[in-house]
Amino acid sequence: MARYLPLARPWFGLVAAFALLGVAVQVVAVAVDSAPYSVFTGTGARVANVFAYFTILSNLLVGVTHVLLAVDPARDSLAMRVLLLDAVVGIAVTGIVYNLVLAQTVDPHGLHQVATVVCHMITPLLAVVGWLVFGPRGLVDREVVLVSAGYPLAWLAFTLVRGAVIDWYPYPFVDVVAHGYARIAVNCLVVAVLFVGLGFGALALDRRLPGLGAR
Known about the structure:
The protein is globular. It has helices spanning 5-32, 43-50, 54-71, 78-102, 111-134, 142-148, 150-166, 176-206. The protein has one domain (5-206). The protein is built from eight helices and no strands. The termini are close together. By secondary structure, it is mostly helical. InterPro entries: Pr6Pr-like (IPR049713). Keywords: Membrane, Transmembrane, Transmembrane helix. This is Pr6Pr family membrane protein. It comes from Pseudonocardia yuanmonensis.
């Protein structure tokens, strides 16, 4: 572990800084520019709505877990294991889905563009590379993978129920009004399978890669 520690802690700190910076910039962007959120007329409502996005929640998870790792890379508990896997897989899904599916549907400007680049590109890359290089290793098992799946499923359930109430959805692939429940059910299944598949991929890699706590 010692040979990884000098680089691991500053890397975890760097990842946390970018993740939290991206969220902060996005909050400021929606506070000063209502154009992309015209359905929410008040500043407070627009800011609160930022946290309905899977991207923002995943960046927050990355920020919090990596602050904890920067302070104590040996930190270990079931909650930490689940949150860290949710953070790494969630931010990987964020990068994959945005860059392969959503990037062609949006045209951000100003602070929105800065937040988009940080939250969807820089943070996913740094977080995934950091996990591959440093880990921490030995924190992923079958139970952790299955429990971590509760995060995207809970987000999907919340998003669909809230969307039905307020008639607004954060992403086109969960917009029931535009696509109908059958299509959205398929889209949600794809996201869930991607998340769990990446979780089991992380389990396989965790057993083979070196890093902090490697056995």
